[in-house]
Amino acid sequence: MTPAVVAATAATVVTTPRGARLAVSSFTASAAAASAAAVATTVSAAAVDTLVLVLAHANGLCKESWLPAARRVAARFLDHQQKLQPAPLLPRRLVVHTFDSFYSGDSAALNRGRLRPPQQQPGDPIAGFDWDDLARDAAAVAVWARQLAERENRPSGSGSRGRVAVVGVGHSVGGYSLLRAAQFLLLDKNASGVGGAGGLDAVVAVDPVISVPGEMVLEGPSPLAAGALRRRDEFPSRAAARASFRARPFFASWSDAGLDAYVAHGLEPVEPVTGGGGHVDDAAMVADDSTPVRLKCRREDEAAAFAWRDLGTLAFAALPALAAAGSCRLHVLAGGLSDIGQLWPPLSGGPGSRAAAVAAAAAPISSVSVLDGLGHMLVVEDPDRVGDAVFDALV
Fold it and tell me: What's the whole-number average pLDDT of the chain?
């Protein structure tokens, strides 16, 4: 059997055209002796040497919330790649980038006080972030990821090894962001302010926040924003935070892997623990369970994202244009127990709402998978099942 190679890279900060600084974590998976000959996926009929996944998380979470599912995708990739030797049907390597939105995770501290404030929405005392700013940021990460892969695919003196395919995989508002990013990159490069060549070859939208105009009308203050403002945001230790989360109904369905990723990476010391040279020493902080911690994503910022009034209608409006362009395939994974996921069952043959019928008529979708028994937080509820579904959508 060909030995598998999974290599992590150092964390990177990508600065977007609007000035947002985004923390990115990456890893690469490949089989050491994998052929670079004609390889293909359902991402495109053209041969693909390197498949790049750009992962966007849900509001209030962090880039590492995707890691358990992403590792499952990589495991499936390596398993299939090795079994199909010596003539693989998969790309030579898989590159995974997962990034924190500008107010979340490790990006939060990089941007606090630097970007424009939330915008007041009619009828709501809580100002909201413009979700299209998230989409423009996601587009910038996709452009950066493609350019990086193309540079790495160009060995000295031998030309390019093969084509790079970039796929956006987004959960909840991350799904909205990547759908709009695909539209910006394909159809409106000048107005988007992103620039750069090459768009997204596909988007896998995981229970995305997409709504047909008039179907999801938010009147008055956002209850989700109000709830975010009431969140407890400081804890005496990570263990205490985990116990507190697990006791709450919202977290009851989360897998241990999903909750552990959130506790490990969605919290930071209230007072930084320093090692030699004055730098923050993460190892010392994790080892000392008496260290008080707080949410990296501030309550006010999580509320500001919930308070935006569009509720996904702009992403819905982008679907027909993306379908007409023909160069970006769209795959949807929906939680069977999710209210948001109820938009999609008619596309896969099940019963559903008028909104779903309108969506089916207006925007052809390459594939839809409804994951029965899972809710809107399916990425952290069952990472292995979501990872399998992402892999199956792409190959």
Answer: 79
Phi, psi of 22 (to 5 degrees): -115, 125
Q: How far is CA 311 from CA 49, 56, 106, 218, 317, in A?
A: 37, 17, 26, 8, 12
| Residue 373 vs residues 124, 209, 256, 257, 370: alpha-carbon distances, Å | 34, 19, 17, 18, 9
Tell how strand 293-295 and strand 267-269 pair up. antiparallel
Interhelix angle 131-152/173-187, nearest 10 degrees: 70
Measured CA to CA, the distance from residue 262 to residue 246 in angstroms comes to 12
pLDDT digits (tens, 9 = 90+) for 137-158: 999 999 999 999 988 877 644 4
Helix, strand counts (H, E) of the chain: 14, 13
Cis peptide before 86 (omega within 30 of 0): yes
Q: Is the dihedral of CA 179, 182, 186, 189 positive or negative?
A: positive
CA pair distance 182, 289, nearest whole angstrom: 42
Burial class (CB in 10 A: 0-12, 13-18, 19+), 323: middle
Q: Which two tokens stand for residue 274?
A: 């320093």
**Cα atoms found within 13 Å of the Cα of residue 376, Cβ hemisphere only:** 17
- The pTM of this model reads 0.85
Closest CA to 387 of 162, 171, 146: 171
CA–CA gap between residue 29 and residue 7 (Å, rounded):
6
**Residue 104 in tokens:** 């979340």
| pLDDT at residue number 280 | 45
27-36, 166-175, 186-195, 196-205: which is most confident: 166-175
Residue 100 near residue 57, CB atoms below 8 Å: yes
Q: Is 163 helix (H, G, I), strand (E, B) or coil?
A: coil
pLDDT band at 383 (very low <50, low <70, confident <90, very high): very high
Structure tokens at 9: 């890279």
Residue (of 62, 148, 74, 73) closest to 106 by Cα position:
62
Given its phi and psi angles, is residue 122 left (phi above 0), alpha (psi -120 to 50 degrees) or beta?
beta
The crossing angle, in degrees rounded to 10, of helices 67-83 and 256-265 is 120
